[in-house]
């Protein structure tokens, strides 16, 4: 039964990773850049939820909606100020700027909220299910997290496949210049991608902190990097890939924590990343991208 | 007399400035005119400068961003401190420190080489994230590593001190999260400056050598470099390994300057890698002297202006973003050209690489 509990916890953590990985994978697919600051948007989102719920006493759903709005705006502002001017610059310049933004958000949060961890009240008020006379407990957090993740995944896949903006996103990710010729507003599409990714980050932040309630300005950076690992694992640019990669990574992490060493769990997760990139750099569901001259 | 070329002249100027600064600092330190805080910073500044020079080789000449240089620094620091501690009583001070230096550097180079083999097949963002992962792995592994020595030899464990099963007379070498304590403090300012000068000469000669020119060619256009028959992987490996080795030297200096060596986020983790990156970007990508200047100024400045230290990290991040936009954004570059604020006017020498699409 212990194994099953770990598995469910792993799925729950993996779902959060998958949600964060979506933000990475969409932005990477469309803007061809690694948005290093994504993990810190999660942290900001979680702080907004915390402020709304614990300080202002708003209900959980309202808090999350406010947080989504804030993060969406934040994501778009970051894109506008820091990334858009560099769209035609080299990858290195964009990457360093993204690291700068990430660092900026962390230190901003550090100044506003302080370095002491705040204890986050779970947004989910549900004891959860209990099977086999309490031997197997599934927390409400885990169930809601997994369901939310799957629902968002399905909606997003439908959105990208069937709606006009979704089709524009796919076109831009395929070929930016050709998309312009087809009359697609590339800037608006990239902004939309950042908006969606950051909105999802807000949800991920609330769910992550519901399961792991200690919130500090550094909360976002580790899950952010791990979620990027998940995105690479599943194949960057692919939405189902983010789900598969996220879930697998969550399970690996929880099992490693339980059976090998809790201190080495992070190291094991990163070792997985290196192995994946060695063996199959395109990830599980990724497509081979040919280098063009 | 043969006329020296421009970059050699620049190197000589830099070295002269470093020597003058060294003499001034030594005299001030000797006559007690330096606060204990400042004199305590002399060796770390050199260590950071070394790592920054190493990273600059990677970012500026290889054109790849490594976020794992704190990891290489960590490898250099821990292997050399381990060696010094292990042979503390059996080898005299001077040869032991030299050996520790060699071992730390070689181990960092070895790790750099090993990590470069898989990593350099990737590029750009992937490379950055894998080096970051590597740095975190190193840090995590060191934090759970317990090593002790007794008459039976070395004992290793990744659980705790008890599971080593040592004799009571045994000596702990690496104590998990508490790291290595009681490393002999042998990094003096003189040694640090000497190593820094050597590193500057080595990097200068490297980037102007045949190999260095090949590395630059690869950075500017990998496909073109491949077309003319350059073994791309080999040159990348060489550059990355040297870069890691220099970071390792910085680690050795750092380790032999403090009493208790631990691996935390601030000294060997992500934060350190970012700090070093700030030095490199601020000093000018591809400009080794600039890295040293930035490292010195940014380490000394917050200590001198006490009030600034709270905002230090915030300012660093803003500096990073603004500098990148100022130097790389096409629109801003155009504006600068129109207003005569060109690259030559700024300390950092930026070489824009044109990407092939």
UniProtKB/TrEMBL annotation, chain A:
It is found in: Cell membrane. GO terms for biological process: D-alanine transmembrane transport; L-alanine transport; L-isoleucine import across plasma membrane. Pfam families: BPD_transp_2. InterPro entries: ABC_transp_permease (IPR001851), BCAA_transport_permease (IPR052157). The keyword NAD does not apply. Keywords: Amino-acid transport, Cell inner membrane, Cell membrane, Membrane, Transmembrane, Transmembrane helix, Transport. The keyword Cytoplasm does not apply. GO terms for molecular function: L-isoleucine transmembrane transporter activity; L-leucine transmembrane transporter activity; L-phenylalanine transmembrane transporter activity; L-valine transmembrane transporter activity. It is a multi-pass membrane protein. The chain crosses the membrane at residues 6-27, 57-78, 90-114, 134-159, 180-208, 228-252, 264-285. One of its GO terms (cellular component) is plasma membrane. Belongs to the binding-protein-dependent transport system permease family. LivHM subfamily. This is Branched-chain amino acid transport system permease protein.
UniProtKB/TrEMBL annotation, chain B:
It holds the Pfam family BPD_transp_2. It comes from the Bacteria. GO terms for molecular function: branched-chain amino acid transmembrane transporter activity. Its main location: membrane. The keyword Amino-acid biosynthesis does not apply. One of its GO terms (cellular component) is plasma membrane. The chain crosses the membrane at residues 12-28, 40-63, 70-88, 94-119, 126-149, 189-207, 237-256, 276-301, 313-333. The keyword Magnesium does not apply. It is a multi-pass membrane protein. It is found in: Cell membrane. PANTHER family: HIGH-AFFINITY BRANCHED-CHAIN AMINO ACID TRANSPORT PROTEIN BRAE, HIGH-AFFINITY BRANCHED-CHAIN AMINO ACID TRANSPORT SYSTEM PERMEASE. This is Branched-chain amino acid transport system permease protein. It comes from Pseudobutyrivibrio ruminis.
């Amino acid at each position: 039964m212990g194994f099953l509990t770990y598995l469910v916890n792993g799925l729950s953590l993996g779902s959060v990773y998958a949600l964060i990985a979506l933000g990475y994978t969409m932005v990477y697919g469309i803007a061809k850049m690694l948005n290093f600051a994504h993990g810190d948007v999660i942290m900001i989102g979680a702080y907004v939820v915390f402020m709304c719920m614990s300080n202002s006493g708003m209900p959980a759903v309202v808090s999350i909606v406010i947080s989504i709005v804030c993060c969406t705006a934040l994501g778009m502002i970051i894109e506008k100020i820091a990334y858009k001017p560099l769209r035609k610059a080299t990858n290195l310049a964009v990457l360093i700027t993204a690291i700068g933004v990430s660092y900026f958000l962390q230190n901003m949060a550090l100044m506003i909220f302080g370095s002491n961890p705040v204890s986050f009240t779970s947004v989910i008020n549900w004891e959860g299910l209990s099977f086999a006379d309490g031997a197997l407990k599934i927390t409400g957090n885990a169930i809601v997290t997994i369901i939310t993740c799957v629902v968002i995944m399905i909606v997003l896949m439908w959105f990208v496949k069937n709606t006009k903006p979704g089709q524009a996103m796919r076109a831009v990710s395929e070929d930016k210049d050709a998309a312009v010729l087809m009359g697609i507003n590339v800037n608006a599409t990239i902004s939309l991608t950042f908006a969606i990714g950051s909105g999802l980050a807000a949800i991920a932040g609330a769910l992550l902190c519901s399961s792991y309630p200690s919130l500090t300005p550094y909360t976002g950076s580790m899950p952010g990097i791990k979620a990027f690992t998940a995105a690479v694992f599943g194949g960057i640019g692919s939405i189902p890939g983010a789900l598969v990669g996220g879930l697998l990574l969550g399970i690996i992490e929880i099992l490693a924590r339980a059976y090998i060493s809790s201190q080495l769990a992070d190291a094991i997760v990163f070792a997985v990343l290196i192995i994946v990139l060695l063996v199959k750099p395109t990830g599980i569901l990724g497509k081979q991208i040919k280098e063009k001259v | 007399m043969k006329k020296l070329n421009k970059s050699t002249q620049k190197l000589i100027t830099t070295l002269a400035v470093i020597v003058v600064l060294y003499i001034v600092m030594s005299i001030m330190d000797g006559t007690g005119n330096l606060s204990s805080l400042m004199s305590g910073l002399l060796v770390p500044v050199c260590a950071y400068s070394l790592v920054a020079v190493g990273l600059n080789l990677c970012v500026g000449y290889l054109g790849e961003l490594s976020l794992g240089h704190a990891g290489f620094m960590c490898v250099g620091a821990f292997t050399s401190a381990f060696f010094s501690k292990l042979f503390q009583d059996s080898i005299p001070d001077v040869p032991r420190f030299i050996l520790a230096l060699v071992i730390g550097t070689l181990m960092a180079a070895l790790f750099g080489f090993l990590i470069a083999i898989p990593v350099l097949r990737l590029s750009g963002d992937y490379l950055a994230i894998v080096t970051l992962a590597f740095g975190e792995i190193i840090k995590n592994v060191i934090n759970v590593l317990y090593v002790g020595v007794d008459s039976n030899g070395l004992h290793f464990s990744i659980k705790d001190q008890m599971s080593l099963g040592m004799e009571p007379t045994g000596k702990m070498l690496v104590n998990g999260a508490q790291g290595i304590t009681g490393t002999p403090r042998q990094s003096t300012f003189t040694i640090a400056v000497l190593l820094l000068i050597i590193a500057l000469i080595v990097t200068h000669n490297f980037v102007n050598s045949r190999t260095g020119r090949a590395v630059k060619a690869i950075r500017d256009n990998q496909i073109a470099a491949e077309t003319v028959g350059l073994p791309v992987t080999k040159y990348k490996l060489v550059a990355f390994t040297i870069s890691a080795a220099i970071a390792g030297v910085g680690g050795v200096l750092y380790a032999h300057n403090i009493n208790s060596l631990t691996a935390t986020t601030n000294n060997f983790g992500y934060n350190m890698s970012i700090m070093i990156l700030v030095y490199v970007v601020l000093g000018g990508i591809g400009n080794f002297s600039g890295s040293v200047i930035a490292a010195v100024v940014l380490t000394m400045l917050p200590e001198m202006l006490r009030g600034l230290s709270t905002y230090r990290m915030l300012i660093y991040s803003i500096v990073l973003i603004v500098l990148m936009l100022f130097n790389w954004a096409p629109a801003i570059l155009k504006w600068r050209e129109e207003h005569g604020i060109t690259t030559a006017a700024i300390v950092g020498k930026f070489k824009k690489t044109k990407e092939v699409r």
